[in-house]
Amino acid sequence: MCHRVNDVMRLCCELSANQQVQTTVRGSGKGAAAAGGLAFAGGLIGGPLGIAVGGAVGGLLGCWMTSGQFKPLPQIIMELSPQQQQKLYDDLLAVMGDIQWTDLVQLTALVMGNATLKQQLTATLLGYISKELQAQESSSGSGLDFITQLQHNITSSWV
């Protein structure tokens, strides 16, 4: 059974890598605030040229402030605890139904060859990650509301 959980986790990595999903782990608002704030201050001081300079400097400052806070979703999936991976596996297995596979290659081929199943599994994956990260982040005082929007954007792009 353990190899089946590993197969599904690797499938999740493949699904998220195909969508090039990036998710933040902590406060992405800091970078946006720095960029916007310095663009505003630059505009007050230097007019239109000040907006450009302030935005550029603010963007660099925001990039520096958030450096290392963005992780690819496959990395997040592989860093889940065994209990979290089991819960995700159970959620995805409910969507997959009675699909049988012998190895990761066969599972990947079955899922990638079925657009509807691929979309349903990706939506389930993103929903789980969003819910799981929301729960972890709510205890530290920051939220990840943008993940819900990210999930909506990705599933809408398939329609």
UniProtKB/TrEMBL annotation:
InterPro entries: C19orf12 (IPR033369), Glu_synth_asu_C_sf (IPR036485). GO terms for molecular function: oxidoreductase activity. Transmembrane segments: none annotated. PANTHER family: NAZO FAMILY MEMBER, PROTEIN C19ORF12. Belongs to the C19orf12 family. This is Chromosome 19 open reading frame 12. The lineage of its organism: Eukaryota, Metazoa, Chordata, Craniata, Vertebrata.
